[in-house]
Amino acid sequence: MSAPEPFVVCVIVTRHRAALLRRCLDALAAQSRPPDHVILVDNGPDADTQDALTACPVPGTYLPSQVNLGGAGGFAYGILAALAMGADWVWLADDDGRPGHRRTLERLLWCAGDRQLDMVAPLVLDAQQPDRLAFPLRHGLRWLRRIADLEPAEFIPGAANLFNGALFSARALERVGVPDPRLFVRGDEVEVHRRLRRSGVSFGTWTPALYEHPSGQDDWIRLFGGAVSVLVPADPSRRETTFRNLGYLTSQPGLRWRRWPDEVRYAWYYLALQGDVGGFARWRRLAAEGRRERFPGRTPPAQAGAAPASADARQPQHDHGRRSDPRRFGCNFDQADADPRLGPENTRTRLPG
Fold first, then answer.
1. 290: which residues sit within 8 A by CB, 6+ positions away?
2. Could you give the residue range(s) of every CATH 3.90.550.60 domain in the chain?
3. How far is it, in rounded angstroms, from Cα 132 to Cα 190?
4. To 10 degrees, the CA torsion angle through 320, 321, 322, 328?
5. Measured CA distances, 133 to 11, 188, 213, 229, 247 (Å)
6. How many CA atoms within 13 Å lie on the side-chain side of 190?
7. pLDDT tens per residue, range 78-128
8. 10, containing H or E segment
9. 3-state class of 99 per DSSP?
10. E strand or H helix at 264, and its extent?
11. Distances, alpha carbon 81 to alpha carbons 20, 38, 76, 118, in Å
12. Please, which pLDDT band fits residue 16 given cuts at 50, 70 and 90?
């Protein structure tokens, strides 16, 4: 008797990009082995986004967030929902990326089974220049930036771009945990990658599985002939978040060694190349805030004496129609759940509110 097919849930995080989201959903639905379910976390709820999920032939659950959780918080929310749903594997996707081949998920699942991996990632290509990688990929002491940089081996152990097509087993997520919502954006992938390496989870990149994403290399400035790089986003707000998060990363086990090399790289960039003493001072201040875990709050404090919001205003408007019937996930109050993957204990689960 053959083993049952694994239950694969794809988690997508989006915000006000319905056109890109539709393209992503179309590519997911066209997979030779599509995911069994899509969880869409909407960081800026709007009707166009929900309509895009409704039009997708893959069953889906719409999770709106009334506050912008960022990429880190959005993936944390979606991953926990997928695990609660009984997912065997969780496939992570950003709204502006998409599978680069109709057999991407099929190949990832095959590689995970063949090599006994707990997490496997595709090769993420630049959507505009497919001979380049969308993001630099560290392999030992080298940074891989182009297809030509890859070694003949199809599998790159211990290296991965995580939030663009990476496939996590439920076992891996139970051991590693979810992204840290405090990081919001930038550095969240590096922090999860740090935990992957320290946990002993087996993972890597399977290069025959392809994924496409807009280039993320523009924010990287190469120094000393490309031997090292510094990350300096052009957007001031994103730059501030990045510098603070990078400081936090250098305070964590497994990444503490990066603190002083970062000091040298950013000093060279700001002082020697830019002549910007103020810029280097800002970098040091923000990095120090990150090491002390002084993250800014993004939700304004509640005003004393303000009238509480009504229950209807506080309750998220989940789509519990045909596409996300709570009975499908063991949340029905009146009858037992018929899905054996969820287990009988879930038949007594209560919805919040």
1. 243, 244, 245, 246, 247, 248, 249, 250, 251
2. 8-213
3. 21
4. 30
5. 22, 19, 9, 16, 26
6. 24
7. 999 999 999 999 999 989 999 999 999 999 999 999 999 999 999 999 988
8. strand 8-14
9. strand
10. helix 259-267
11. 23, 11, 9, 19
12. very high
Give 270-302 as a DSSP string. Answer: IIIIS--HHHHHHHHHHHHHHHTT-PPP-SPPP
Whether 286 and 243 have beta carbons less than 8 Å apart is answered as yes
pLDDT of residue 138: 77
Q: Cα(156)–Cα(209) distance, rounded to whole angstroms?
A: 12
Characterise 137 by phi-psi region: left (phi > 0), alpha (psi -120 to 50), beta (else). Answer: beta
Helical (H) or strand (E) element with 64: strand 60-64
Class of domain 8-213: alpha beta
25's enclosing H/E stretch is helix 18-29
Give the tokens for residue 55. Answer: 């039009």
Q: Predicted confidence band at 324 (pLDDT cuts at 50, 70, 90)? A: very low
Biggest CA–CA distance in the chain, Å, is 70
Contacts of 259 (CB under 8 A, 6+ apart): 250, 251, 291
Asked whether the beta carbons of 265 and 246 are under 8 A apart, the reply is no
With b meaning 16 or more CB within 10 Å and e meaning fewer, what string describes 210-242?
Answer: bbbbebbeebbeebeeeebbbbbbeeeeebbbb
Distance CA 145, CA 153 (A): 16
Q: What rounded mean pLDDT belongs to the chain?
A: 84
Tokens read off for 181: 């919502």
Can you give the length of the chain in residues? 353
Q: What are phi and psi of 58, to 5 degrees?
A: -80, 130
